[in-house]
Amino acid sequence: MPVDHWRTMMYDNLRRFRSNALPSAFCVVVAERRLLKDLAFHLVGSVDAAEQAVRATYTGWYTMPEGQRDRIDSPFTWLVGTLVRICVGLLESPQPRAEDPAGRPRVAGPPPQRWGTWRDTPML
What is the rounded distance in angstroms from the CA atom of residue 27 to the CA atom of residue 42? Predict the structure, then answer.
């Protein structure tokens, strides 16, 4: 499904709870963050790594110069693409480390003997 379809479903679910008003900006951000965290969890398989990837994604967005942000047509698509790249980077990291320099847990991908690299998996 296209990303826009997921965003439409998110807005429809929010409207169901408050049928007489459009969703507030806060509700939209919370729902967007929940979708990103769910996607990251399904990609990396760890709650801590998913949270780390979502934080890195939002850090990239909010530290981007405003002029560059204004040129992006679909911010949600940018967030999803960036999140996926960060998750793939976590999965391809050569060695798992207990902590990154900031003290947050770091997660490696699945064990190579069981899954191999993600590029070796058959495409459906």
Answer: 23
Is residue 13 a contact partner of residue 34, using CB atoms and an 8 Å limit? no
In 3D space, the residue among 84, 77, 99, 6 whose CA is nearest the CA of residue 43 turns out to be: 84
Q: How many CB atoms lie within 10 A of CB 86?
A: 21
**Model pLDDT for residues 38-92, shown as the tens digit of each residue:** 999 999 988 989 999 999 999 999 999 999 999 999 999 999 999 999 999 988 8
What is the DSSP secondary-structure string of the chain?
Answer: --HHHHHHHHHHHHHHHTTTSPPPHHHHHHHHHHHHHHHHHHHH--HHHHHHHHHHHHHHHHTS-HHHHHT-S-HHHHHHHHHHHHHHHHHH-SS--SB-TTS-B----S-HHHH--GGGSPP-
- Average pLDDT for the chain: 75
Of residues 8, 7, 55, the one with CA closest to residue 32: 7
d(C-alpha 61, C-alpha 111), whole Å:
31
Nearest to 83 by CA among 117, 23, 26, 32: 32
